[in-house]
Amino acid sequence: MQRKYIPWLIAAGIVVTGIIISQVLSHQKEPMRRRPGGDGIKPVTLAPVINRDIPTEIVMTGPLYAYHKVEIYAEVSGVLMNTPVHFREGVRYRTGDLILRIDDRVFRNNVMAQKSSLLNQLTLLLPDLSIDFPESAGKWEAYLADFDMDASLAPLPQPANPQEQYYIASRNIYSQYYTVKAQEETLAKYTLEAPFNGVVTEANINPGTLVRIGQKLGEFTGTDLFEMEASVSHHEADRLRTGQAVTLASEDVRGSFRGTIQRINNVIDRASMTVKVYIQTRDQGLKDGMYMTARAESLPFRHVFTVAKDLMTDGEQIYTVQDSILHLTRVSVVAELGDRVIVRGLEDGTLILGEPWADAREGAKLPPATRMAQEEKQEPDGTEDASNRSDAL
Fold first, then answer.
1. Which of 63, 135, 159, 389 could tie 165 with a disulfide, CB 3.0–4.6 Å?
2. Biggest alpha carbon distance in the chain?
3. 0.85 exceeded by the pTM?
C-alpha cells in the first residue's frame, strides 16, 4: 500500500520545488526603469548657416582620339616603289621618315627640261640686260652663277623699277619660272614623308601596284598627342577654363595621366543639351579609341553652403527658424553633391532645421526640446570630413 503513494509524493515535491525557484527568481529581477524625459517629445536639431567658398570636382568621360590623323590619297599617278620600310598596318615612322614613293622618273625629266629652257632664256637675257639696265646686271649674273639644275629654284632677283620688270616679263622669264615652280611642287608629291611620329593604321596599296590620282592609299595616325572629347552641362562648362589641368584615367591602362583643357565649345548640343570640352594629353601608353575619365577641380561656388536633400521642400525651399517658429524660405540651388545640395540665398547665422522633422510646416512652433547640430570638421583644403559630417552643413 505504501508504494502506491510514492508517485504522488514525487509529483508533489516537483511542484513545490518549482514554486520555490520561481519565487526566488522573481525577487532577483530589477524593476523596469523609466527613460528620462517622460514627455516623449524627440528633440529638434537646429543648425546655423555658415556660407563659404566651396570648390567641387567635375567628372567627365569620353573617347580619346589621336590629335594628328591623316588619310593618305594619291595626288599623282605612277607605280608604287619599294621603300626601306614597307607601308603596312602597325608600322611606325618618325617625323621625316620616308613612307611612300611613286616612280617619278618621267615627270622628273620633264621638270629638268623646263629648267633647262628657263636657264637658256636667262642666258639670252643677260647681254641685253647689261646694255639697257647695267645697274641690275650684277644680281642677274649672280643668279645664273648659283643656278642648280638639281636644286629647287631660288626666287628671281627683284627688279629695280617697273621698266625693268616689264622688260623681263616681255622675255617670258616670269611665265617659265612659275611653270617650273608648279612642276617642282607636283614632283614633291611623288614622295611622302611622315609629317609627325605615328603608326600606319590602314594600308591599301602594295609595292609594284599602279597608283591612280585620288586613290586612297591608307591612314596615318599620330602617337604623341591625344585629345579627349567630353560632354558637360552648360553650368559645369561655365566653371571650367582653357589651360586648366585635369587628371585622366582609364580602365584599360594603369595609373593616371595629366591633361590640359584645350578648347571649350560655345554651342550646346541640342540632342544631349551638353557642351563639348576637349582635353589634350601626351603619353606613350595611350592609344587612339580608348575611353577615358577626366577629373577637374572647377572654379569654387562663392558664398554658399551645403544642406541635405531631404531638408529641401519642393526642391527650392528650406525651413528657417525665427523666434522658435518655422518659415519656408526660398533658396537658390546651384549644384548637387550626392545626397546633398549646394545652395545660396541665406545670411550667415540663419537657423535652419538640422534634420528632418515630421511635424515641420509653415508657422509650426518648435517644441521646447531643441538642440544645435555639432559643427562640421574642416579638412585643410576646405572639404568636409565625411565621418564627422552633420546633417545641416
1. 159
2. 172
3. no
